[in-house]
Amino acid sequence: MSLKEKTKNEIKKKFKKIVFKIIKPFIPFLIVIFLIVLAVCTVVDSMFTTEDDMQMAEKLSSEDYEAQYAEWLKDKETTP
Fold first, then answer.
1. What pTM was estimated for this model as a whole?
2. What is the DSSP string of 14-58?
3. What's the confidence (pLDDT) of residue 48?
4. What's the CA gap between 31 and 40, in Å, rounded?
5. What is the DSSP letter of 25?
6. Which of 19, 56, 65, 80 is deepest in the core (most CB within 10 A)?
7. Is 72 in contact with 58 (CB distance < 8 Å)?
8. Cβ(60)–Cβ(68) under 8 Å?
9. What is the pLDDT of residue 51?
């Protein structure tokens, strides 16, 4: 190993240690923020899923449910 490569490796090691020392105290905060975002996304997703299911249940509860279900499926296919 040449002297140039040894110095590069030592500088990389020192740089990694410094960066890790800077980031280390913030790791718990980042984890908490990530978990909060995940929880909010889950709640919002469940609300919209429930709303779609309720709309389908209302449509199916009427007399002509087969035609309305086919219409609902058609609407679902056309909307992104």
1. 0.47
2. HHHHHHHHHHGGGHHHHHHHHHHHHHHHHHHHHHHHHHHHHHHHH
3. 76
4. 14
5. G
6. 56
7. no
8. yes
9. 66
Print the domain residue range for 72: 3-78
Dihedral, CA of residue 11, residue 17, residue 21 and residue 26, to nearest 10: 100
Q: Are 59 and 65 in contact (CB under 8 A)?
A: yes
Token pair in block for residue 75: 């609407």
Residues 28, 29, 31, 32, Cα dihedral to 10°? 120
d(CA 31, CA 36): 9
Task: Decide if 59 contacts 69 (C-beta within 8 A).
Answer: yes
User: Residue type at 66?
Assistant: E
Angle at 47 between CA 31 and CA 71, to 5 degrees: 140
How many domains is the chain built from? 1
The Cα–Cα gap between 22 and 34 comes to 19
Token code pair at residue 18: 């410094």
